[in-house]
Specification:
Shape: elongated
Number of helices: 3
Largest sheet: 5 strands, antiparallel
Radius of gyration: 19 Å
């Protein structure tokens, strides 16, 4: 079987996606892919989501932060951005999804938009609500563990 000529092959756009959740969030690529499909189907309908053909190619998530590359058909990048913006939870964990950029190749997407953060969360003890608690620090923001949940705070909350 011969390959299709270059002008007949499907063209793709690759969206670099940043993920942020509470530090105890636990989901994997399959869970995120399911949320992407549901968001696209709810926003674009069956035919629109099939046209956009959103696929999670790369996924990395741990300690409340992560990143992914989502593939969309050429001409459907705006619909893909809108569908990703509709995701607010994955596997019952609240999550923030941010599209960092769009590229024409996976390599350019990785080089331009992914891996630049290099964030490694630090855990430390803070006094919050008149009690000493553990907190996870990322970019000057603190997620304080309170009775089985987390509360968001900044350095100004502790001064």
């Amino acid at each position: 079987m011969k390959h299709l000529p270059k002008h007949l092959r499907p063209r793709w756009r690759y969206l670099a996606v940043g993920l942020e959740a509470w530090p105890d969030a636990d989901f994997d690529r399959r869970d995120f892919q399911r949320s992407v499909w549901f968001a696209a189907q709810n926003l674009l309908g069956d035919a629109g989501s099939a046209d956009a053909d959103l696929q999670v190619l790369q996924f990395e998530f741990g300690d409340g932060t992560g990143e992914a590359i989502v593939r969309a058909r050429h001409g459907h990048a705006d619909e893909a951005r809108a569908a990703l913006a509709c995701i607010d939870e994955v596997k019952n964990d609240h999550v923030g999804v941010r599209v960092r950029g769009i590229s024409g190749t996976v390599r350019a997407c990785e080089e331009k938009y992914l891996g630049a953060d290099g964030q490694f969360p630090d855990e430390r003890k803070v006094v919050f609500g008149d009690a000493q608690r553990s907190a996870v620090e990322r970019d000057g923001l603190l997620d304080v563990r309170t009775d089985g949940a987390f509360a968001g705070a900044t350095e100004l909350d502790f001064e």
